[in-house]
UniProtKB/TrEMBL annotation:
Residues 32-227 form the Phosphoribosyltransferase domain. CDD domains: PRTases_typeI. Belongs to the UPRTase family. Pathway: Pyrimidine metabolism; UMP biosynthesis via salvage pathway; UMP from uracil: step 1/1. One of its GO terms (biological process) is pyrimidine-containing compound salvage. It is an enzyme of class 2 (transferase). It comes from the Eukaryota. The lineage of its organism: Eukaryota, Fungi, Dikarya, Ascomycota, Pezizomycotina. NCBIfam families: PRK00129.1. Keywords: Allosteric enzyme, Glycosyltransferase, GTP-binding, Nucleotide-binding, Transferase. It comes from Penicillium cinerascens. This is uracil phosphoribosyltransferase. GO terms for molecular function: GTP binding; uracil phosphoribosyltransferase activity.
Length: 230
């Protein structure tokens, strides 16, 4: 687990405060390469082409972290490695979650399938509504990696996990892969589902009055798909 510098009450940027994390959460090490990529994503002047390319590069790091597994060597030493044997279902929360599917396909060479969930948040009430879901028939016997770039309040994320657990998937078999989360969103996830795992590139401290991540990076789907470009 990576430990970042101590934050003061006036610092509202990315946090890796170990008091905030738990053993089922992993924040990517905040090295210069990752921070340079996150700066591109956060920059309001980044066009959709560069935004999408940068998302792919951050996604590769997230999927690599999600695949790690610890084994014990013959000398009794713990070794962190990769094992692509378990059937995995990548579940995209549409539409933004689909942006991480290519990274999933590149990074996981074991048995892989995909599911889809369409959940939309009411901008006035901030409550999520499920419109559509489609999963492989054997999802209950698979590890599930939920793909969702942004977690603000955690409402849509929790709604998606509800749908997946209703299909018979245990919490312990669910991992949430995320580019940017808010402190509140992470707390909501683990309060509702303490057994899941979370892999994220960054955690921001605040939400705006409209429950958008602050400082954040704007509307991820609009920026990735270019629907906000002139």
């Amino acid at each position: 687990m990576h430990n970042g510098r101590k934050k003061d009450s006036c610092d509202r940027s990315v946090t890796n405060n170990p008091a905030f994390e738990n053993e089922r959460m992993f924040v990517l090490p905040q090295g210069s390469h990752l921070l340079s990529l996150m700066t591109i994503l956060r920059d309001a002047n980044t066009n959709s082409t560069l935004f999408a390319e940068t998302t792919e590069r951050v996604g590769d790091q997230l999927i690599a972290a999600a695949e790690s597994t610890n084994v014990v060597s013959p000398t009794g030493t713990t070794y962190e490695g990769i094992r692509h044997m378990t059937p995995v279902c990548g579940v995209s929360i549409l539409r933004a979650g689909a942006s991480l599917e290519n990274a999933m396909r590149r990074g996981y060479t074991g048995p892989l399938s995909f599911g889809k969930i369409l959940i939309q948040r009411d901008e006035e009430t901030c409550l999520p509504t499920l419109f559509y879901s489609k999963f492989p028939p054997n999802i209950a016997s698979q590890k599930v990696i939920i793909l969702e770039p942004m977690v603000a309040t955690g409402g849509s994320a929790c709604a998606a996990i509800d749908v997946i657990t209703e299909k018979g998937v245990p919490e312990e078999n669910i991992m949430f892969v995320n580019i940017l989360a808010s402190r509140r969103g992470v707390k909501s996830l683990f309060n509702r589902f303490p057994g899941i795992r979370l892999v994220t590139a960054a955690v921001d401290e605040d939400l705006t009055s409209n429950n958008h991540i602050n400082p954040g990076l704007g509307d991820f789907g609009d920026r990735f798909y270019g629907t906000n470009d002139p």
